[in-house]
Amino acid sequence: MKQKQEVLKLDQLCVHFPVRGGVFRRAVGSCRAVDGVSLSITRGQTFGLVGESGCGKSTLAKSIVGLVTPTSGSIFFQGNQIKSKLLTAEYRKSVQMVFQDPVESLNARMTVGAILEEPLIIHRLCRKDERSKRVAKLLDQVGLPESAAKRYPFEFSGGQRQRIGVARALALEPELLVLDEPVSALDVSVQSQVLNLLMDLQAQLGLTYFLIAHDLAVVRHISDVIAVMYLGKIVEIGAATDIYANPKHAYTKALLSSIPIPDPSVKKKRILIPGDVPSPINPPQGCAFGNRMNAPDYPKSIEQELKMEKVGVGHWVLACPCCVHM
Amino acid sequence: MRHKENSQTLLQVRDLSVSFTTDEGEVEALDHVSFDVAQGEILGLVGESGCGKSVSAFSVMRLLPRPMGRITNGQILLESQDLLTLTTEEMRKVRGNEIGMIFQEPMNALNPVKKIGDQIAEVFLLHQDVSPRQASDLAVGMLAEVGIPDPANRALEYPHQLSGGMRQRVVIAMALACKPKLIIADEPTTALDVTVQAQILDLLQNLQRKNGSSVLLITHDLGVIAENCDQVCVMYAGRIVERASTQALFENPIHAYTRGLLASIPRMDGVPKNKLTTIPGIVPALSQLVQGCRFAQRSGRPHPASTLQCRPPFKEVTSGHWVEACPVCTKI
Ligand SMILES: Nc1ncnc2c1ncn2[C@@H]1O[C@H](COP(=O)(O)OP(=O)(O)OP(=O)(O)O)[C@@H](O)[C@H]1O
Ligand SMILES: Nc1ncnc2c1ncn2[C@@H]1O[C@H](COP(=O)(O)OP(=O)(O)OP(=O)(O)O)[C@@H](O)[C@H]1O
Ligand code: SF4
Ligand SMILES: [Mg+2]
Ligand SMILES: [Mg+2]
C-alpha cells in the first residue's frame, strides 16, 4: 500500500490586515482574518473548509495560492517550506485556484481557447503546434465541446463558465486545486453537474482539493476531511463522517443545526446562535464563540491558553472550557 | 407549520401573464400563472433562477419595471379586490399597509442616508393616523419586536452601521409595521449565513403566527421550503408545474422537474461521494419557450410532438395536489 502523502501543510499560519483610521490613515488596529491555522492535506483527498461569512476562509485560500502574504507561520508543499513572497514556478504551477464567480474570474475579451492557452504560454508548457490539441483535451475533460474554444465566456451559462474555470485551473496539471465556493452561484440542478465533474476529475487525475463552501451538505458530500473555522481559527477538524455524526465543539453543533433539511418529516432541534458573526477586528479575548453565546464558563476561557486536543482518530477540537464538554 | 382545513383565501392570482420588451423583442416571463395564498398560511414559491419567482412577486405588488414589463392577462385578488384595477394612489395605500415586502438585498429597501428609526416611523405616518412623536415610539417598539438590542439607540443609526442580518431585521420591521395581511418575502435570507438565516426565518414565523398574516415566501432552497411552508408551488420557465401541500410535495413529487430538483440536492444523510443526480442542460431562454411541455428538452425522455405543441392541462391528481399533466413528465 502506498503511504499517505502529505501535499500541503500549514503551521500556525496568520494573516493580519492593518486597520487604518484617523486623519493620517495610521494603523489603529489589526484585522486577524486568519489567526494561527494549522492543518495538513493528504494527496487525493478533499479537504473541506466551512464557517460563517468573514471568518477568514477566502483569506486562507488566497494565502495558499500566494495572493496574500501571511503575517507569520509557514506553508509546506510536499514537505518543502514555501516562501510566500518568492513562489517558485513549480509551486505556481502545482497549486491552482478556482473562484466562486466564473464571470468575474474570466477575461471577457478573450476566447475560451485563448483563456486556456494563456497559462500554457506563461509557463512555456507545450509547443505552439500542440496547444490547440491540449485545449481540446481540457475542454473534453470538463465536458465541453471542442467548438467552445472559439467562443467567448459570456456566451456560456453559469455552470458552463464554471467548467471553463476548472479547465483553466487544470491546464497546468496541478497537484492541488483550491476551490473557493465553486458552486455557490449555481442552481441546484447545475450544481450537481459541477460537483460530479469535480469528483470524476479527482478520481481520474488523483487531484487534491481544498474546498470552501457555505453549503454544509455539499461539503459533506464530497469531503474526506472537514475543518470548521470561526473568527480566524479552526475550532474543529476531523474526518467528514466524524464531524457530522459526532461534533464536539458547540459552534460545530450550532452550525450543523442551522442547516434547513429538505424533508418536512424531519423535526429537529435547532440551536439558534444569537447575534451576528463577530468582527475579526479586535476580537474578544478567550473563546470568541463562548463570548457570542454568553456561555456561563466563558470567563474561564480567558484564563487559559486554548489548544487543539485530540478527541478521536484524526479528530481534533479547540478545547475551550465553555464550548467543549468532553 | 400548521395545516388548516377550509381556511379562507386571502390572495388569488388568476391566469397571470407578464411580458417584457427586450432587444430580442417581446418575451413572456409568466404564462397564465395561478396560485392562492390562504389566510394565515405560508406559501412557498420555488424554482431555479429565471423561472419567474420575482416577477410573480413584483406583479402582485404592481412594481414591475416600466415601461418594459407589462401584465398582459389575469387577475390578482386580495380578498375580493382586484389589485390590477386600482389606481396608482390606491395601490400605494395597499403596499406597506395590506401587503408588506421583504427582499433579498436589504440595502435596496433601505434609504442609506436616513436613520433607521425614521424610516420605520415613515411607514406609520403614511398609513396610520399618528403624530410624528407617536410614530417614532412605534418605530422603536418595532425594532424591539424584531429582536434588535438597545432599540432606542439603534433607531438613531444609519443602515451602513448595521450587519446584514440586522438590516434584514430592520426591513422586516418596516414590512410588518402595519401588520399587513400579506407578507411577500423574496429570497429574504439568500444573502445571509445559515446561522443568521435560521434567526431570520424563526423571527418571520413567530411574527406571522402572532399577527395571523399570510406569507408568500420565495426561495430556491428546498430546505427552507420544507421547514417553513404549508403549501408549495414549483415554478419552471414561467409556469407553475406542480402545487401541493409541503408534505405531499416532498413525499410524492409527481412532475419530472420537481423530482429532478429534489434528487439533485446532496443530502445530509446521503452516501458521500456518490454520483449526484443531475438535470441535464439549463433553463431555456424566454425567447425559446414552446407552448407545450417546457421541461421536455431537459427531461431526458423523448416527448412526442403533440406534447410540445399545446400546453398540458393543470390537473388535480389527489385532493389539493396539482400538476401540469404532461403525459411524459408525469409518468412515474
Ligand atoms: N485585503 C484585505 N484588507 C483588509 N481586510 C481584509 C482583506 N481581505 C479580507 N479582509 C477581512 O478579513 C476577514 C476575513 O475575510 P474573508 O474574505 O477571508 O472571509 P470569508 O470567510 O471568505 O467570508 P465569505 O464567506 O463572506 O466569503 C473579513 O473581516 C474581511 O473584511
Ligand atoms: N426587466 C426585465 N426585462 C426583461 N426580462 C426580464 C426583466 N425582469 C425579469 N426578466 C426575465 O423574466 C424571467 C423571470 O425573472 P425572475 O426575476 O422572476 O426570475 P427568478 O425566478 O426570481 O430568478 P432568481 O432565482 O434568479 O431570482 C427571467 O428570464 C428574466 O430574465
Ligand atoms: S396530451 Fe393532450 S394536453 Fe398533453 S400535450 Fe398532448 S394534446 Fe396537449
Ligand atoms: Mg470568501
Ligand atoms: Mg428572483
**Rounded to an integer, what's the Rg of chain B over CA atoms?**
21 Å
Give the structural class of chain B: alpha/beta
Give the biggest beta sheet of chain B.
8 strands, mixed
The small-molecule ligands in this entry are: adenosine-5'-triphosphate, iron/sulfur cluster, magnesium ion
Give the number of DSSP strands of chain A.
12
CATH architecture of chain B: 3-Layer(aba) Sandwich
CATH fold-level name of chain B: Rossmann fold
Could you name the ranges of chain B where pLDDT drops below 50 across 5 or more consecutive residues? 1-5
Low-confidence stretches of chain A: none
Instruction: Give me the strand/helix succession of chain A.
Output: EEEHEEHEHHHHEHEHEEHHHHEE
Content of β-strand of chain A: 25-35%
| CATH classification class of chain B | Alpha Beta
Spatial strand order of the main sheet of chain A: 6-7-8-3-9-10-12-11
Helicity of chain B, as a percent range: 25-40%
* Number of H- or I-type helical stretches of chain A: 12
User: Structural class, from helix and strand content of chain A?
Assistant: alpha/beta
Shape label of chain B: globular
Q: What is the mean predicted local confidence, pLDDT of chain A?
A: 90
Helix and strand layout, with pairings?
The complex is a heterodimer of chains A (326) and B (332).
Chain A (H helix, E strand, L loop, with lengths): L5 E16 L4 E17 L3 E5 L6 H9 L6 E6 L2 E3 L6 H6 E4 L3 H4 L6 H11 L5 H14 L16 H13 L5 E5 L7 H18 L2 E5 L3 H7 L2 E6 L2 E7 H6 L4 H9 L29 H6 L4 H6 L3 E6 L2 E5 L7
Parallel strand pairs in A: 3-8, 3-9, 6-7, 7-8
Antiparallel strand pairs in A: 1-2, 1-4, 4-5, 9-10, 10-12, 11-12
Helix pairs in contact in A: 4-5, 6-7
Chain B lengths: L8 E14 L2 E14 L3 E5 L6 H9 L7 E10 L2 E2 L5 H7 L4 E4 L3 H4 L6 H12 L4 H14 L5 H4 L9 H13 L5 E5 L7 H18 L2 E6 L2 H7 L2 E6 L2 E7 H6 L4 H9 L40 H5 L4 E5 L2 E4 L8
Parallel strand pairs in B: 3-8, 3-9, 6-7, 7-8
Antiparallel strand pairs in B: 1-2, 1-4, 4-5, 9-10, 10-12, 11-12
Helix pairs in contact in B: 4-5, 5-7, 7-8
Bound molecules: adenosine-5'-triphosphate (ATP) (2 copies), iron/sulfur cluster (SF4) and magnesium ion (2 copies).
